């Protein structure tokens, strides 16, 4: 589908993925392997602090969309958001990131969605839009 390719290129996902390789940063697959290597807790979540933060919002993400009513859809969303939290621990997971990630997953394969998400959060939005204290997003509401 053309939508995925246009967003992948225009939102900077392709450039972000290429830049990560050039800089020697972990690929999406490497991030997934790292998350998997940490194991899971008794509730089946990755043993990472960011995973519990993601879980708080997961089921509130487009609750009437059939894709996110399934464990497969929720799993893809959880995976993307936890991987991002590992990639960028300074930001981790912040409330409302789930909606951006979910929208991308509805229209793109997970790897393209991940790198496009990274580009949106790290390059398109203002630097302080998503932080632990959400200063930028609160200022945006004024």
Give a written overview of the molecule.
- This protein is an all-alpha fold and 142 residues long.
- The protein is 63% helix and 0% strand.
- The protein contains eight helices and no strands.
- Helix 5 (71-87) packs across helix 6 (97-107) and helix 6 (97-107) packs across helix 7.
- The mean pLDDT is 91.
What's the structural blueprint in terms of helices and strands?
Blueprint: H1 2-10, H2 13-23, H3 28-37, H4 49-58, H5 71-87, H6 97-107, H7 110-124, H8 135-140
Helix pairs in contact: 2-7, 3-5, 4-5, 5-6, 5-7, 6-7
Short account of what is shown:
The chain has 142 residues and is an all-alpha fold.
Share of helix among residues?
55-70%
Tally the helices: 8
Question: Poorly predicted ranges (pLDDT <50, ≥5 residues)?
Answer: none
The helix/strand order is: HHHHHHHH
Computed Rg:
15 Å
Secondary-structure-based class equals: mainly alpha
Largest sheet: none
SS strand fraction: under 5%
State the shape: globular
The overall average pLDDT, rounded, is 91
Number of strands: 0
Alpha-carbon distance between the two ends: 38 Å
Descriptors for this entry?
globular; 142 residues; 0% strand; mainly alpha; 8 helices
């Amino acid at each position: 589908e053309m939508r995925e390719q246009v967003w992948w290129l225009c939102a900077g996902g392709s450039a972000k993925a290429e830049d990560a390789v050039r800089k020697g940063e972990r690929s999406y697959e490497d991030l997934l392997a790292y998350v998997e290597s940490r194991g899971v807790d008794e509730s089946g979540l990755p043993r990472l602090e960011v995973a519990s933060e993601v879980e708080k919002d997961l089921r509130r993400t487009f609750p009437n969309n059939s894709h996110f009513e399934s464990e497969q859809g929720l799993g893809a969303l959880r995976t993307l958001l936890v991987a991002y939290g590992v990639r960028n621990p300074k930001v981790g997971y912040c409330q409302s990131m789930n909606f951006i990630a979910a929208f991308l997953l509805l229209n793109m394969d997970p790897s393209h969605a991940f790198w496009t998400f990274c580009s949106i959060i790290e390059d398109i939005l203002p630097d302080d839009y998503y932080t632990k204290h959400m200063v930028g997003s609160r200022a945006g509401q004024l």
